Amino acid sequence: MAVAKAGPKSAATKAAANSAATKAAPSAAATKAAATSKATPVAAKATSGSALAKAASGRPKSVKAADQRFQQAKRASILLKHVSDPTRLQVILILAEGERHVGALCDQLSQSQPAVSHHLALLRHGNIIAPRRQGKNNFYSLTDTGAELARVVKNLIA
Q: 65-157: which CATH architecture?
């Protein structure tokens, strides 16, 4: 079994590292004081509404708009991933005609119940369809988002 030897060089290296870490990390009180002294002049300099908004948020409006566009694109991407399968698109188009239970969807899609249930679960998690329980059957219908998707798909394939 090998045992690491602690020589004078390693002790000096450890001492230097501890000294550097202590110098690099300011105390909490110093950090708070620096933040307070920095925040006051920025707020005092802001005279116009847009400058005040920039100072309050810390970012220009163009960056906020870019972030908002990115978030919208991200939501659209997630939504489109839910309908990226031909079977799920068929389910949406069938449900656009009206509510169906799982057995009817299986018959119309010519697929097994577990396969259809898998697709329904993905659509349900994407808030595209909503279930309604009646006895032993689950009936599915489109949500508002699902209805809008169905309209878009119908327009694309028309």
A: Orthogonal Bundle (1.10)
